[in-house]
């Protein structure tokens, strides 16, 4: 009895990889082996960068808050310490937006932090 090979399934699997590598440059888009390797690399980069994006945004927010704090005559670390002492719980994204869009409210937050420093 002849050996059965599922060529339809094999072709579909390879086609799926080729579909996912559409838009890649050169052989990476249409040769199966290189496309498979390129796709594996792309998935690992995507996984890594989903984590990195969170770090990058937090760094951006801290930088913005720090710049706004220095305009008010206080450092970022003293500002955060003052907020912690005052038991004010606002996340960095909200504080960053406040510093940009609503300077008066940010100034009030800075004053509260200054009051609650030792």
Q: Specify the structural class.
A: mainly alpha
In CATH terms, the superfamily is: Ribosomal protein L20, C-terminal domain
Number of domains: 1
| Regions with little confidence, pLDDT below 50 for 5+ residues | none
Count every beta strand, where a strand is a DSSP E run of 2 or more residues: 0
- How far apart the termini lie comes to 88 Å
Give me the strand/helix succession: HHHHH
Average pLDDT for all residues = 93
CATH topology: c-terminal domain of poly(a) binding protein
Estimated radius of gyration: 26 Å
- CATH architecture group name: Orthogonal Bundle
| Number of helical elements | 5
Q: Can you give keywords for this protein?
A:
mainly alpha, c-terminal domain of poly(a) binding protein, 118 residues, 5 helices
Describe the structure.
With 118 residues, this protein is mostly helical. The chain has a single domain, classed as Ribosomal protein L20, C-terminal domain (c-terminal domain of poly(a) binding protein, Orthogonal Bundle). The protein is built from five helices and no strands. Helix 1 packs parallel to helix 2 and helix 3 packs across helix 5. The longest helix has 40 residues. The chain is rod-shaped, with a radius of gyration of 26 Å. The N and C termini lie far apart (88 Å). The model has no long low-confidence stretch (mean pLDDT 93).
């Amino acid at each position: 009895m002849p050996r059965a090979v599922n060529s339809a399934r094999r072709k579909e699997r390879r086609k799926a990889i080729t579909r996912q590598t559409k838009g890649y440059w050169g052989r990476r888009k249409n040769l199966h082996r290189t496309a498979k390797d390129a796709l594996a690399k792309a998935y690992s980069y995507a996984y890594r960068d989903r984590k990195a994006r969170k770090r990058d945004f937090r760094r951006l927010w801290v930088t913005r808050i720090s710049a706004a704090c220095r305009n008010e005559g206080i450092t970022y670390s003293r500002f955060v310490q003052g907020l912690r002492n005052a038991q004010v719980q606002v996340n960095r994204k909200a504080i960053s937006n406040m510093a940009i869009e609503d300077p008066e409210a940010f100034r009030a937050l800075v004053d509260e932090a200054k009051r609650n420093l030792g």
